[in-house]
Amino acid sequence: MRRRVKGKLSDDDRDVWNEVKKTATPMMRAEFVVSRDLSAKSPKKTPPKSLDAMITQFEVGARSARTPMGHNLAPSVSQRLAHAPVEMDRKKFGKMKKGKLKPEARLDLHGMTLAHAHPALQGFILSSAAAGRRLVLVITGKGKDRDDGGPIPIRRGVLKNQVPHWLHQAPLRSVVMQVNEAHLTHGGSGAYYVYLRRNR
What we know:
The chain has helices spanning 11-23, 51-54, 77-82, 90-97, 114-130, 158-167; strands spanning 105-108, 135-139, 176-181, 191-196. The protein is α+β, with helices and mostly antiparallel strands and 200 residues long. It has a domain at 78-196: 2-Layer Sandwich (Ribosomal Protein S8, Chain: A, domain 1), CATH 3.30.1370. Strand 1 (105-108), helix 5 and strand 2 form a beta-alpha-beta unit. The N and C termini lie far apart (111 Å).
């Protein structure tokens, strides 16, 4: 007995198959029947890409090749303040931005830790509001570049970034109307104008 080759019919089997085909009744109309060559090989499926091939190779702490340093961060405090709605009188706001309004008091937080700066800021703002002052200056400094090259970028100037958050939190948000970066004559991006609400 000859061994059958997989996928191929012998001459005898082909003859039997042809005789069977003559007796078969198609289930659909003939024009819709699609004949298929049983000996034809089905097309090979493209294997899916491995997970390793889809993940870009990187090293922990390496900077992204797609975006320059700094673009992976959220908008800076300066950008957020520049786009904040103006709640104070617009004419006064324009003068304040140009450095034409003189601050009535100032607080210098230069060199303080967060633990010391926070209570100092709260005391200064609340006492200024109680004294009826409207415009005060808070100096934070621009800060040192503390980015140590780790995987999470760190903004320059811890106090510079933290002070506006504190000013918008209780209990200070009830007395603070507007916060804006100071004009160059009063310290520029290393200081903030804080415009206080009128005492009632």
